[in-house]
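Chapter review: from sequence to fold.
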Amino acid sequence: AVNILLDLFDTSTRLIDDAGAIHVPTLLLSSGSDWVVKTQPQKDLLNNMSCPVKDMEMYPGFFHSTFWEKDRDKPVARTRQFIVDAFARGICQV
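The token string follows.
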């Protein structure tokens, strides 16, 4: 429904504007051939975040469901390494 799409757009715009309130380590995975989510707003979100540990990884040729692609081992391995590194640096604790 149109009202749901408009609400999603408004929420995503507000999230990008308020991203400075995000202080946790963040890894943003982006699919290069995604026809649903555009790359620039993702970059804007990451740039607006105030967390000192943040990174973005782009997967050319991947579509919208990054973790369901044929080569999903790449984003899975990257995510795992990001988490391991965050714990090793003492950024995250259990």
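Two observations follow directly from the output. The longest strand covers residues 26-31. Helices lie at 2-17, 39-48, 73-88.
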